[in-house]
Amino acid sequence: MPLIPEEPQIHESAQGPRVSPATGRTAPTPRPVPGPRPAAPPRPGRPGPVRPMPPVQRTPRDTAVAKSEPAAPAAPAAAPTPQIQVIPASAEGALDAAEEAVDLLLDSGTTPGEVLVITTGEPHPWAAHELSFGEAAYWAQHDAGDDVFYADASALGRAASRPVVVVAVNGGPDSTAATALPLARGRAGTLLIVCGEPQRINSVLSAAV
Description:
Elements: H1 60-66, E1 83-88, H2 94-107, E2 115-119, H3 125-131, H4 135-144, E3 149-152, E4 162-168, H5 174-187, E5 188-196, H6 198-208
Parallel strand pairs: 1-5, 2-3, 2-4, 4-5
């Protein structure tokens, strides 16, 4: 009778000898696998990493706009033209008419420092009195700008602009009025009052335009 080979018996000891940890030593604990580190926040005052942007495809229209010439600067605004008021008066009464005009301006609320009075003939008594103390003290009052200032037409080149200029055409050669009236209009900010003969005044102002 044939012999049936016996199936190999797998004994527990076949799994290999068990290794027990040595006395006094602890089995090492497996370390966790580190994952990806989070990105560090940027420092204050320093930007974080910048990712490059993909190139922008320009169209022919964009290129034309980029190469267009810059716009021309705007032209400066023209200086405002003051209103002109003519008060009929003779050469002898022009200074009195100018005084009355100044009184009306002050009564209507105009500040004294906003008024400049010019004479083409004899100087105003106030100007003659103040000039007796010297030109330095006289022009110091002009620079202070806190009161009505009276000046001769020859001083218009030095006088500063004021909102209201009153001109008394109280004599003097025609060339003086022809020079003073255009200058006075340039010094007046909002209002130019001229006291004198209207025909003479209008002819001078028309020629200066």
